[in-house]
Amino acid sequence: MRRPESLFWVLLVLSLVIIGLTVPVYADDQITVTHDMLGDNNSLQVVRITKRVVNIEDGAFSGLTALKEIRVDSDNEYYASYNGCLYNKDYTVLICIPQNTRSTRLG
Fold first, then answer.
1. Residue 12: phi, psi to the nearest 5?
2. Each residue of 4-56: pLDDT tens digit?
3. What is the pTM of this model?
4. Sign of the alpha-carbon torsion through 95, 70, 56, 88
């Protein structure tokens, strides 16, 4: 049974923590982080990508001006993070450097 879209957004809001956001996960769902899902936010500093995220659209983090770090669950099959930056799983494509990162060392 697919959960209503409004329940997803309620759980998304409830998942907010002081320094970041964890995208909620249902056992049977695969999640796409869309370009407008996170909106404009000037206080969100950390985004955690769970193992169920299978797609992240271009520009998904563009409105997160305070973003310092992206963390990816090690069980995620599609994405990885290193020094707070988002990569594809095998680290051959750098997908995102958070906007508020002062400096980073790329592997």
1. -60, -45
2. 454 454 444 444 433 455 554 444 577 778 767 777 888 889 999 988 889 99
3. 0.70
4. positive
Cβ atoms within 10 Å, residue 79 = 21
Identity of the residue numbered 100 = N
Residues contacting 14, CB < 8 A, separation 6+: 24
H helix intervals, 1-107: 5-14
Are 21 and 38 spatial neighbours (Cβ–Cβ below 8 Å)?
yes
Distance between CA atoms of residues 15 and 30, nearest Å:
17
Q: What is the CA radius of gyration of the chain?
A: 13
Report CA torsion sign: 35, 36, 41, 46: negative
In the structure encoding, which two tokens stand for residue 91, read together? 């680290």
Alpha-carbon span 102 to 61, nearest angstrom = 16
